[in-house]
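Minutes, project check-in
Item: structure for the 111-residue chain
Input as provided by the requester:
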Amino acid sequence: QVQLVESGGGLVQPGGSLKLSCTISGLSLSASNMNWVRQPPGQGLEWVASLYPGGYTAYTNSAKGRFTISGDNAANILYLQMDTLRTDDTALYYCSDGAVRGQGTQVTVSS
């Protein structure tokens, strides 16, 4: 059974940084396509970034140059380093293998 547990969210000022973590059990990060998705207040889910086996990455346009997805295969943890945060990054952030999501971690960007 796949279980995903996100952490690392919080309140940050515009221009600040946060690093999200997703602890994975029930599948191997090194062999899986893993994603970060988010749900802004009152809106639907939107894809943010993906990490593929071999270390390949992909980002939505708004995340390019600001966010970095990475993973620790030995620890089976997925990360999302978020820099230069903006108010429109405010959302509940989830990691997902495409079928399962965790409970999410809240990111609030506000002055």
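Outcome recorded: The mean pLDDT is 97.
No further action items on this chain.
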